[in-house]
Write a structure and sequence with these properties.
globular, seven-stranded mixed beta sheet
Length: about 160
């Protein structure tokens, strides 16, 4: 399964690195396209006032001088040679529940995948100071395995909040 990863905390965020490594360890092809800096609260905004640049880290992550929505849109509409099987956004450092989902860049990246017709998942760690990103990554791997075995009949958007244990 090819999974496009993004987030709103930036390409250097520990949650994103944990998620990418864990998915790859379980045999998934992973492409990371994330913002060059923290864009928490960016919601579903698109960058329209300047050119967007895609760069690549030595570790293979792509980063964009734009929003989480820009990252997913650029990846799906031109950067990737084929559509990914799934978009995952996260692991966000903090919950995305209730009104937070309206403003969340994490949820926005997953929403963009959904709007482009791809099953999408936003993964957040309900932070209590332990920073157990591996727990959330394990949940994400389980979700990917379930979708691979039983694909959704149509695009779905899931917002998943994992306890920090």
């Amino acid at each position: 399964m090819h999974i496009l990863l993004s987030n709103d905390d930036g390409y250097f965020a520990p949650g994103l690195a944990t998620l990418a490594a864990t998915l790859a360890e379980h045999g998934h092809e992973v492409t990371v396209v994330a913002p060059e800096r923290d864009r928490s609260g960016a919601s579903n905004s698109l960058t329209l006032d300047r050119p967007l640049m895609v760069r690549r880290t030595p570790g293979g992550f792509h980063y964009v001088n734009g929003t989480p929505t820009d990252c997913v849109h650029l990846a799906v509409t031109g950067l990737l040679p084929a559509l990914p099987d799934m978009v995952m956004s996260g692991i966000n450092h903090g919950a995305n529940m209730g009104d937070d989902t309206v403003y969340s860049g994490t949820v926005a990246a997953a929403t963009e995948g959904f709007l482009l017709g791809i099953p999408s998942v936003a993964i957040s760690l309900v932070n209590n100071g332990r920073d157990q990103f591996q727990t959330a990554a394990n949940v994400a791997v389980d979700i990917a395995a379930r979708v691979a075995q039983n694909p959704f009949a149509e695009p779905v958007l899931l917002n998943v909040n994992v306890p920090d244990v």
